[in-house]
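Support case: 4-(N,N-dimethylamino)cinnamoyl-COA complex. Customer-provided input:
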Amino acid sequence: MSIVNQEIIDGCGVITINREDALNAINTDVIYAMKKELRLLHKNNRVGSIIITGTGEKAFIAGADIKEMEALNSTEAMEFAKRGQDITRFIEEYSKPVIAAINGFALGGGCEIALACHIRIASTKAMFGQPEVKLGIIPGWGGTQRLPRLVGKGYAIEIITTGALINAQKAHRIGLVNYVVEPNQLMEKAIEIGKQINSAGPVAVKYSLDAIRRGSELSQVDGLHNEAQLFGLTFNTQDKSEGLKAFIEKREPKFTGN
Ligand code: DAK
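Agent response - structure generated as follows:
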C-alpha cells in the first residue's frame, strides 16, 4: 500500500496520508509522495480542488516524524526544514484551492500543513497544537508565520509557547478552522465545498487565490493594484464571456478554464 493515496471524487483530488501506525507523521518519503500527487493533480483539468486528509480516525498528521528528526545533525535538520517549508509553500501557492479535512491530531508539522491549506474543516475529534517547544525545538514549517496571521498574535503565542493542544471547538472559535462536523460527515463536507469550487470559473478561482495570497504579503495599495490587474485579465478569458452570458440567458455556465 502506498504511503500517500490519491483518488478523484466529484472533481476533487483527494490526497490521503497513509501511515496510520505512526499517526500519519510526515517523513521525507511522505513529503516527496505528496508533492508528486499534487503535481499530477495540478495538471489534471478534471480536478478543480484538492482535499488533504489522513488515514484512520485518530490522526490527520501527528507532526514531522520525530524518529527521522532525532537522527539529524544541524545541517540535515536545515535541509529537513527546507523540504517541509517547500511543501507548505507549494500548497499555499497551489492554483487550485486546497482543503484540509482534519480527522484527528494535527500537531506540529501536521498543524502547519493544515495552516498552509486554503480552507480547514475539522471533525469533532480533531486536536490542534504546536508542541515543538516540548521537544526543545520550534515550529519549522511556517507555524510561527501562518498561525499568527490566521488566529492573531495572542492565541498564536499561547499555542506555540505552551505547546498545549486545543480541541476542534476552540479551533473554530479562534478562526483556525472554518467548520467543525461529526467525523462521519467530514469528507462529505469537504467534497461539498470542493464541488462548489469546481463549478466556478477555474481561472477566476486561480486569480482569486493569487490576489488573496499575494495581498497578504503586500501593502494594501499594492494588493489593490494586483487585484485590479487580475480583474482586468479575467476579461481576456472565455470563462468571463461564458459566465456573464449564462447569467443573462438564465442558465448554468459551462466553464472550460480558458
Ligand atoms: N513522529 C513519529 N512517530 C510518531 C509521531 C511523530 N510525530 N507521533 C506519533 N508517533 C507514533 C508513536 O511513536 C507510536 O509509534 P509506536 O511506538 O507504536 O511505534 C504511534 O505513532 C502511536 O502513538 P502513541 O502511542 O504516542 O499514541 P497516543 O494515543 O498515546 O498519543 C499523540 C498520541 C499524538 C498525543 C502522541 O503520539 C504524540 O504526542 N505524538 C507526537 C506529537 C508531536 O510532538 N508532534 C510534533 C512533532 S515535531 C523543523 C522542522 C520541522 C519541525 C520543526 C522544526 N526544523 C528542522 C527547524 C516540525 C516539528 C514537528 O512536527
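Residues 202-248 form a domain with the Lyase 2-enoyl-coa Hydratase; Chain  A, domain 2 fold (CATH 1.10.12).

Case will auto-close in a few days if no follow-up is received.
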